[in-house]
Amino acid sequence: MSNGLYETPKIRVVGDRGLLVEYGDRIDPVVNQKVISIAIGLEHDAPAGVIEIIPSYRSLMIVYDPSVTTTSVLQESLSSLEKRLPEIEIPTPQTVEIPVCYGGEFGPDIQFVAENHGLTVDEVIRIHSEPEYQIFMIGFTPGFPYLGGLPKELHTPRKKTPRAQVLAGSVGIANEQTGIYPVTSPGGWQLIGRTPVKLFDLERPNPFLYQAGDRIKFNPISLEEYRRLAEKGIK
Amino acid sequence: MDAFLVQAPGSYTTVQDKGRFGYQKMGIPVSGVLDSFAGSVANMLVGNPEESAVLEITVVGPRLAFLREIDVALAGAEMGATLNNQPVNCWESFRVSPGDILRMQQVKSGCRAYLAISGGIEVPEVLGSRSTCVGGKLGGCQGRPLKKGDILSCGEGTLLDVPRRLPSAWIPRHSPEIVLRAVPGPQDDFFHEEGLVTFFQSEFTIGTDANRMGYRLQGPSIPHKEDMPGSIISEPSISGNVQIPADGQPIILLAEQTMGGYTKIATVISTDIPKIAQAIPGNVVRFEKVTLETAHSLYMEQKKFGGQVLQ
What we know:
heterodimer, A: 235 residues, alpha+beta, Gyrase A, domain 2, Cyclophilin, 2 domains, 7-stranded mixed β-sheet, 4-stranded antiparallel β-sheet, 24% helix, B: 311 residues, 7-stranded antiparallel β-sheet, 7-stranded mixed β-barrel, 34% strand, elongated
């Protein structure tokens, strides 16, 4: 239990079409890995009547058609999947490199983050771009990745008043999380930089660059490099 | 094939079909018609498959100038529609010719009207659906509500031999007081028994913050257990979830959400979502507790009824 994993998953009923399956009690890479593995296993061999499988931090939701299946059938599929889990091949997560121009007009809150922790802006950039972050889940807007593994030195509370508009590509911090805004939307995260990469682009054959379980590595770039990449319209 | 020109868009008119499934894990909400019954009936009345795209028209209707001869049907909210200044009825089909003008007024009963045309509204399919997701700026008409000057197309369709109408016994009545049946959970264990009793026995009023994202309600506060937090680790949400944030005032989540971080005391059954879709600020809501088994048999009944209506 030290990693927060439940011995047996906790099943919660979500109306007449949903089952929420909780695998642990906290935001933790091990718990999340379990969620992702089960989601992959279920998708690979989806029981009849399953409409959506949505992994999140420590739980996954199964949306089903009650005219095709029942909660007991779904629960049986889950426990049999759990037993077979060691044999199920989980694809190696891919690491997606995201170039980020930190600070300046793209990162209006980087100074605040730095001062909040007695760091210089350069140190914030170095610390933020060092780890490979695990994508715990995607939600809020199309392709918004909730990333785990932000070093403690950078944990910063959300802005007191959210911005009405955060431009697409903005990279932010909220408490122990970091993430990227794929589309322009309102938002309350502390903004530290921006990427010229389109995280969600319907013009691409695959509009998404990653899925839950993959890793993201930020790669600091200069303003010139940002402009060059933005002009090239890198995909 | 150009079908109509938008002369005035109304207050909030979007293209919707049954919804976009399979992408919630990518942060894309289901979207789709909020009142699935009215949306399906409108399609049936013009001879379309029920999954064809329609206009979802909210509170104040649009003015449309037709560009070709097609059949049109309105269902759902009553908005005092006229065709060339002659009244046309909701829940039945009518034929339009190029140059005809459909005017819709402010809603008289209900909240959302659905307009179907022969062949369905033809916009590009995005990730398997024509529904507009305004938050993600995708689907429908360039990912946004209609605006003046938009020209929308229709798909291939055949004109009806005879006009169709829904038998009046099947027309839902929109009441200013609605009862929503709901299954407790997923986080009913975060509340005291008396919190649950308050929730299922009180009246709530729909506030002004009511849209496709969700409906905020006002009423007696539903307290959490002292040792239970109001916010939880974010998890997927579904249409009908009733969130209770720290202030104790319920919010019914609808079709444009993917994740939420507040406890959900109960979830409205799918059969009753159309009742929320037709409710407006000031209306009164009560929740009636049902078991999952009851919810499932109601689901099957509704499906059977839908099949009968759409024949």
